[in-house]
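Progress note, sequence design subtask.
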């Protein structure tokens, strides 16, 4: 057995065809890159967003609307979500996060009055609607709204 007769192991990558080794290989001289131009140069890399010098799509498309970068985005918690907690002492962001009601305990939480509440909860949130505060107080609980940072 000779070295060139040994088969490749399973899963081994296929050998790349030789480039630039004379015209007899079929990939000689320009090594399959054609003649001149940007793509024929060494080190050329085509970025996915490259459009060959024409005006890029992010500059061609008209821009509309307004996005307020200073807006505060609250995580919404409704009164019906509190029923999932059972008989807990103080309901805060960490408890809501462990129960899977909110995704991030560090973002502000707002309590809304969608649903009914039967238990007396002590709730600590960043913001709450008047109806939600009244509903919890009517059930014998209390709502503490944190100071704005």
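Output:
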């Amino acid at each position: 057995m000779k070295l060139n007769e040994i088969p490749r192991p399973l899963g081994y990558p296929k050998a790349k065809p030789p480039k630039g080794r004379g015209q007899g290989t079929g990939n000689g001289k320009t090594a399959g890159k054609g003649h001149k131009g940007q793509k024929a140069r060494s080190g050329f890399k085509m970025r996915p967003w490259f459009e060959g010098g024409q005006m890029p799509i992010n500059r061609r498309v008209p821009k509309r609307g307004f996005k307020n970068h200073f807006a505060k985005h609250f995580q919404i918690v409704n009164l019906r979500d509190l029923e999932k907690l059972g008989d807990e002492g103080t309901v805060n962001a960490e408890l809501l996060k462990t129960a899977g009601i909110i995704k991030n305990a560090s973002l502000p939480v707002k309590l809304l009055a969608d649903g009914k509440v039967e238990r007396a909860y002590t709730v600590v949130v960043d913001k709450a609607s008047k109806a939600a505060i009244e509903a919890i107080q009517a059930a014998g609980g209390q709502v503490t709204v944190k100071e704005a940072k």
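Residues 75-145 form a domain with the Ribosomal Protein L15; Chain: K; domain 2 fold (CATH 3.100.10.10). Work on this subtask will continue into the next period as scheduled.
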